[in-house]
Amino acid sequence: QVQLVESGGGLVQAGGSLRLSCAASGSIFSINAMGWYRQAPGKQRELVASIMASGGSTNYADSVKGRFTISTNNAKNTVYLQMNSLKPEDTAVYYCNARYYVPYSGLRDYWGQGTQVTVSS
To answer: 9: phi > 0 → left, psi -120 to 50 → alpha, else beta; which?
Structure first.
């Protein structure tokens, strides 16, 4: 059973920084990719950043490019999101995602519980 545990959310003022962490455990299968999504009140959940386990290729939403950085540990089972120069529009619940490859099944997504990030003006 896969479990994703998130930490690092909180309340900060505009211009401040936070670092989110997410540790994945409980699977014998390999992780294909990890990422961060966010959902603001009344809005759709959107991809913030993702990183491939093989090669480390990253992808960012245009709104966070240059401000956020996604990374993983060497074992590729923990993902981080360094958030700098935070803006009020970054306020949302942030969800960790891990995508696993399961033989004879394919890719399966698992989600963290969500962590609140609030940026005051």
So the answer is: beta
